[in-house]
Amino acid sequence: MAQKPSQGKKGPGCLVIALIVIFVPILLIGGFFFFATSDLRRSDEEVLKTYQPTVEIAEIAEKNTLTDKGKAAFYRAQPEFIDGEVFRKYCLGNGVEALACIGPKRGGGPFGGRQIFLLKIDDPKFADHKYAAAVHEMLHAIYDRLSSSEKKRVNGLLEQELSKHQDDVHLTGPINILKKRGKTNKDIDSELHSKFGVEYNDLSPELEEYYKQYFVDRQKVVGLFKNGGFNSRVRKMDEIRYEMEALAPQLTSMQSQLTAYQNTGDATNFNNLLGQYNSMVSQYNAKAAQSQRIYGEIQQFYQYFDPAYKPPAEKAK
Fold first, then answer.
1. Which phi and psi angles does 282 have, rounded to 5°?
2. For residue 57, which of 83, 82, 81 has the smallest C-alpha distance?
3. Residue 140 and residue 126: Cα distance in Å, rounded?
């Protein structure tokens, strides 16, 4: 008697094919994820042993007195100098600092970690921007890798320190920029973590102890920031502005007094005060001219990474 044909019974071969279809993509994705994140899982010792910094990158680490832990964090982020065109692609609009940024690693894929990009400037007035900018971004990378418990502890220290600087526009300004961009508290705490570490002397003893993990002498780091070509110009403009603001009411008062002497015909006192007034006007005008010159240099700096940059007054037109 003839046997009935099979009613769709599947043999073991079909089961193997089905398993291959299901598990091979999973294995491929898992393998990609494993290799893509392998750099992130390397120990500090391994990073220090295998990473070969360029002369310029090694100098940044040396000048900033990085500890081995600091160097490992810096090198893990594979800092790279890039020209203005590449900088605009990776950095423009992605951070608060105009000098550098940290973003997805070039060619690293979605799981490849983050990389530090530094704007390369040969202009001797601004070339030393690299020292402060590099460790600012390094501290962002360090903050990202903190455990939840350590991040919570450090955030508390940062917020306590912030309470002492409520009138500091150089600190509150960047925070307000981040808030306007809809950034989270995590982004703001990360920015504070970088700015306090690089820009401020005399932090709380707890914060100073925390930063000792990464810097042998943090005061040298702050010095590099304050004396750098870009930041020193910003600070000088602030100093000049405060001096001009102090002179302005004195000049207004003298003008009123001169008018009063003129109206009463007191030529002697008018002439005596006029010489003092003219001297102060010359001081005021000299400070205004100096401020304008420095402002012009800062505009030139911004145009290194954004050729379309225009000063705020021009943008408003």
1. -65, -40
2. 81
3. 23
- Rounded Cα distance between 178 and 188, Å, is 7
Q: Backbone phi, then psi, for 158, in 5-degree steps?
A: -65, -40
Answer for the pair 34, 44: CB distance below 8 angstroms, yes or no: no
Check if the beta carbon of residue 119 is closer than 8 Å to that of residue 100: yes
Distance of CA 277 to the CA centre of its chain: 44
CA dihedral (88, 90, 93, 98) in degrees, to 10, reads -70
Per-residue pLDDT tens over the stretch 215-271: 999 999 999 999 988 888 888 888 898 899 999 999 999 999 999 999 999 999 999
Write phi, then psi, for 117 (nearest 5 degrees): -110, 130
Q: What sign does the dihedral 6-8-9-14 (CA atoms) show?
A: positive
Could you tell me which of 104, 101, 51, 111 has the C-alpha nearest to residue 76? Answer: 51
Give all strands (DSSP E) within the chain, no chain letters: 80-82, 100-104, 114-119
Q: What is the pLDDT of residues 12-47, one digit of tens each?
A: 555 556 555 555 454 444 444 344 444 555 899 999
pLDDT in tens, 94-153: 555 567 888 888 765 555 678 999 988 888 888 888 999 999 999 999 999 999 999 999
Asked if 287 and 243 count as a contact pair (C-beta separation under 8 A), the reply is: yes
pTM of the prediction?
0.72
Cβ atoms of 66 and 215 closer than 8 Å? yes
Task: Give CA angle at 31 (28, 32), nearest 5°.
Answer: 85
